[in-house]
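Input record (one chain):
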Amino acid sequence: MNYIIAIAGKGGTGKTTVAALLVRLLAEQKKGSVLAIDADPNSNLGEVLGVETNETIGSILDTISSDPQSVPQGMSKDRFIEFKVQSSLAEADGFDVLTMGKPEGPGCYCYVNNVLRNVVSKLIKDYDYIVIDNEAGLEHLSRRTTRAADTLLVVSDATVVGLKAAKRIAFLAKELKIEVKKRLLLVNRYALAFEKEKLEGMQLEYIGSLPYDKEVMGLSMKGNSILKLNNNAAALEGLTHLGDKIWEK
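The corresponding structure, as predicted from the sequence alone:
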């Protein structure tokens, strides 16, 4: 049985950094095979992980939808999509990365999205752990990747705006009927004791916070991979302590 961790949050909360740190921890602790899915249209999870992705699922679907003749003769469209998805995987030490890319264009995507969900669902079964970095709207969870997750981890900062966004994401997941076993809230870049009254009506279990980490910010400013972060970095240590709550089967 594999374990799916879907991560969401409004832009600027450090959501992608948290996703990358989780991928790193799972790989380093040798929990099993790990697939990182970048389902945020900004598509920078691979960069944060130090992995170069040459092709995105968005570009594959654009080509197939706008130019059906791109499918080789003798190969079904379903098989071609599966082949292209497999080819787009970027392999790294201890994990693979699949980049979804930008939202779809003006063509008709109903058919290819249905095929894509089947292909990704099949691909996911080959991994023990899947970490999906989503946008706040959860589009890929609802349409392109999988409609189920073992853990929905919502990342927020300590601001009122960030927490309101986290609350909306929790309600959206319920509204979209995404099957989730655990709904968790992680407050990023906050070292103080968190006021529990701010969590009223959140429908998320607050598991803790990660402190502001100058080293993480330094790597980000230089465009360096999170894999270069020291093992004793505050953010990494903090997430290590919370890990079992996030990925415990």
